[in-house]
Amino acid sequence: MSIARTLDLGRAVDVVILEVKAITLIADYFVIASGTSQRHVKALADRAIEENTWKPIHVEGYELGYWVLLDYGDVVVHIFREAERSFYGLERLWGDAPRVDLEGHSQRP
């Protein structure tokens, strides 16, 4: 997934891809990553938007930079500050979803 690679190259912390298409209609994939500060979260969101050919349908949370959501339709990108990521626990919430590595290979939970 190119967005996940873009975030990884931007030094995002712990980039995780969850394949959620079998358990929700919201999206096929969630990409979850952390930034080390509000500025880093916003920079990661900027990089994801600028360096990918697809543009998000909707962007939420950019102004504050605690949790930025980029909605690409089939892919929803969540970029958190580390404290917010821990608090909301999306990986725990969607724990039944298989993880996909950066090369696109699925891994069962």
UniProtKB/TrEMBL annotation:
SUPFAM superfamilies: Nucleotidyltransferase (SSF81301)
Keywords: Cytoplasm, Repressor, Translation regulation
Signal peptide extent: none
Membrane spanning residue stretches: none
GO biological process, one term: negative regulation of ribosome biogenesis
Localization annotation: Cytoplasm
Molecular function terms from GO: ribosomal large subunit binding
UniProt family annotation: Belongs to the Iojap/RsfS family.
Protein name per UniProt: Ribosomal silencing factor RsfS
